[in-house]
Predict the 3D structure of the following.
Amino acid sequence: MPDLAIRSYLPTDRKAVFRIGGDTAFFGAPIEAYMEDRTAFLDAFYAYYTDLEPEHTWVATADRGVVGFLTGCVDTRVHDRKIRRVIIPRVAGNLLRGKYHFGKRSMHYFRGLLGGLFQKEFTQVDLEIYPAHLHINVEAAWRGHKLGQRLMEAYLAQLRELRVPGVFLDTTSLNVAACRLYEKMGFRLLDSRPDRFWAKWFGHPVDNRCYGLML
Ligand SMILES: CC(C)(COP(=O)(O)OP(=O)(O)OC[C@H]1O[C@@H](n2cnc3c(N)ncnc32)[C@H](O)[C@@H]1OP(=O)(O)O)[C@@H](O)C(=O)NCCC(=O)NCCS
């Protein structure tokens, strides 16, 4: 049996976190289903956690290799501000330098994303009650070994120690294992809205969901 463990994130884990982030971004499968070049997504989505708030990220290891992670943020308003002031300018600079490749799949996805924004399909949360948030992913080969649960326990204990009042996360009805995990950890569904883009893709209704936990 491999040696499974949970520990705090180290800067040397960045590559592994980005790899797993890309390999699981399509409802647990690789992002290339809807985006040709994963680097734009990873730079825009995960670099905040690894580069600007690494102290709230946790990794799961098997025989010391990283096989899962939980990226956390204790104050979503700070996250949103730094996304605007640091991450977006950095990604825009990379875009101008031609670092990213956007093909037909990415364009189709971005149109869907914009449509969802205009149609108010994305969930809302009260950040006074639930200031913290998280993202969690475990490599497909290492799911079902309680690593997700242990990552969550480590982060929730950290948030309680910091006296953070509440934590939320965004997911979808398609992330069945994740929704079960959140409910098992005591999260309750705060908001749910139909997502037309993924519903059309999969041919059945899909909901965007927001779960929250008061600590
Ligand atoms: C969600 C995820 C992180 C769970 O991690 P995991 O290490 O496989 O989960 P664990 O082994 O810790 O399981 C803990 C609980 O989660 C739920 N769960 C885990 N896998 C499940 C599955 N396949 N079906 C239903 N529930 C499941 C169960 O409640 C389980 O507790 P139990 O075994 O006592 O019933 C992992 O499945 C994953 O990375 N999925 C793909 C990416 C994703 O959806 N991330 C979340 C995006 S919002």
